[in-house]
Amino acid sequence: MNETAELGFNPDELREKYVQERDKRLRDDANEQYGHIEGDFSYLEKDPFVEEEIKRDPVKDETDVILIGGGFGGLCVGARLRMLGVKDIRIIDKAGDMGGTWYFNRYPGINCDIESHVYLPLLEEVGYVPEQKYATGHQIFEHCKAIARKFNLYDNALLQTEVTELCWSEGEQHWIIKTNRGDELRAKFVSLANGFLQKPKLPAIAGIDTFKGKMFHTCRWDYDYTGGDRTGGDVFREGPMNMEGLNDKRVGIIGTGATAVQAVPHLGNSAKELFVFQRTPSAVGVRNNSLTDPEWVKSLKPGWHQERMDNFLMLTAGGYAEEDMVDDGWTEITATLVDLIMSDPTGDMSPEAIELKAELADMVNMEKVRARVDEVVKDPETAELLKPYYRQFCKRPCFHDDYLQTFNLPNVKLVDTKGQGVDRITETGVVVNGKEYEIDCLILSTGFEVGTDYASRAGFDPVGKGGLALTDYWSDGAKTLHGMHMHNFPNFFMMGITQSGFTVNFMHMIDAEAKQIAYIVNKCLQDGINVLEVSKEAEQAWTKEVYERGERTVDFAMNCTPGYYNGEGKLSPTVRQDGFYFGDQPTDYTNILEEWRASDDLPGMIKS
Ligand code: NDP
């Protein structure tokens, strides 16, 4: 077959180009290039959204269940516990309200990047159908609060409170939790849901400490300075926001990831001058947001939400489904692969042939992304710089209908760093390729800590039996059963993506984990089980399976351009063990949990 003629591109040339673009960006300091937000930079993490600071005396009491984190993780566990009749629950969160990432991220243009009808949890339980296909950040934040109200999760909650210590007391057979407000709380069960992308990271660029202008991180947007709609606005209904505080300002934004793609159109619309400092361009496909059709809402039958979530999971995690319910840029990625397989006259379905077709399908999709840049961006030089050359899942795929268009505005300049990042920051600006760009305001859209110590991200290190700290226990890689239970850490649950099912829709797995945790806690309370700990054998068996199934991801990640998905190009030796659980089918992980619960005997757990 003449692939080049049929496909419209030469796969070998493209493969080579991807390697060159990756190599250009590899750097020895990998994740070490980033610093921590602490000391003189602590102000970057201060909560700007607290309406009134809570003043209270320290609390000393006992609770059945403490949920650390009031984002979707904690809210889902809390709601699922309430549905089973568990009463004594407390949520602790450092923020001024529930919502987690959707509390803190209020940058202009914030939108759900997954269809909200599959991303938002507990829709049927709360009786809400998002009014847009891709909800605004504010609508999602409101849904978080609605869950908390519906399931009485504000009762007993400790907001504006940071956990500083979490220790298992063998004598008392309780967890003891200390906080920055002097609280000493005891809990029979603890569930950690304190977020995966929650600790903003500091790009340790030379001179960042010398900058004299205004500087903030996208996850603590300073609307007092910029002006504009503090909720993040509604780009679909209202178009780009005018942040009047920026009308006379020269603004720079470092980073062009999923956050910047959403924020840049609003900055372009507001700033006197906008400089977008780019190291690696994002792949930006068509968004095509729409209002939810009320007739469709009326037609929904009970169970629709889980069915839609499962359908999306199948079609975005390598499975097959007759119907594509969501039908958007995410599912199109798989549709291209299915088309290639169906149109192959050899019918070769060997793993090698499928992998080759998956690579070609990816190239087809990325060619469309690159062609779109040419269609939209008027200046050919700028267009060329905005084209991403890597496989689509090397970075979070983005979808937006105003981002690329912003580079046609006369006040907006793309400053490409040729894959190297900005050279340095001065008192008055940002230097790239030896040229200084003077600015009044610098916005860090540089993402969140990934792959750093747990204690660095969370602010505390859970200590289990015998004084064993989680960081030490996991020093040679994560060890869990189902991504949630650890030997030596009784009555303890960890929510997150480590050793959990693979998905692009994190909420899908978070709610699956929440159902599991709620079931276990309720069963222990009902059956009088005081202490529950996963056996070493069960933990080892799961960890081994995660490791064995993770082989292909390592090859994939190594060929990717650097980013937080692949340890900035330097994979940790434990990457296979620390990654997702890849089932034969995308639904395997949730099926395993369901079967585990169906046995009603807590297999693999030591009970006393
Ligand atoms: P990312 O980590 O994805 O992006 C950080 C950006 O900063 C990258 O473009 C990176 O470049 C750039 N950068 C870092 N250091 C430098 C430097 N020294 N010089 C120049 N550029 C630099 O963070 P985001 O906040 O954009 O997104 C994080 C995650 O949040 C997403 O992947 C997504 O999962 C989630 N998100 C979810 C949304 C939703 O609706 N559900 C919406 C928005 C975000 P490089 O690529 O070269 O490393």
Structure commentary:
The protein is an alpha/beta fold and 608 residues long. The protein folds into two domains: 10-45 and 203-287 and 360-444, FAD/NAD(P)-binding domain (3-Layer(bba) Sandwich); 60-199 and 451-603, FAD/NAD(P)-binding domain (3-Layer(bba) Sandwich). The protein contains 23 helices and 20 strands. β2, α3 and β3 (89-92) form a beta-alpha-beta unit. The structure holds NADPH dihydro-nicotinamide-adenine-dinucleotide phosphate (NDP).
Sum up the structure in keywords.
single chain, about 600 residues, alpha/beta, FAD/NAD(P)-binding domain, 2 domains, six-stranded mixed β-sheet, five-stranded parallel β-sheet, 23 helices, 20 strands, about 15% strand, globular, binds NADPH dihydro-nicotinamide-adenine-dinucleotide phosphate
Q: How would you describe the oligomerization state of the chains in this entry? A: single chain
> CATH class of the largest domain, anyone?
Alpha Beta
Q: Helical percent range?
A: 25-40%
Q: What percentage of the residues does DSSP assign to strands (E)?
A: 5-15%
Q: Tell me the CATH superfamily of the largest domain.
A: FAD/NAD(P)-binding domain
Uncertain residue segments: none
Q: Note the total helix count.
A: 23
Shape: globular
Biggest β-sheet description: 6 strands, mixed
- Provide the structure class: alpha/beta
**Residue-averaged pLDDT, rounded?**
94
Q: Give the count of structural domains.
A: 2
Q: Any idea what the CATH architecture of the largest domain is?
A: 3-Layer(bba) Sandwich
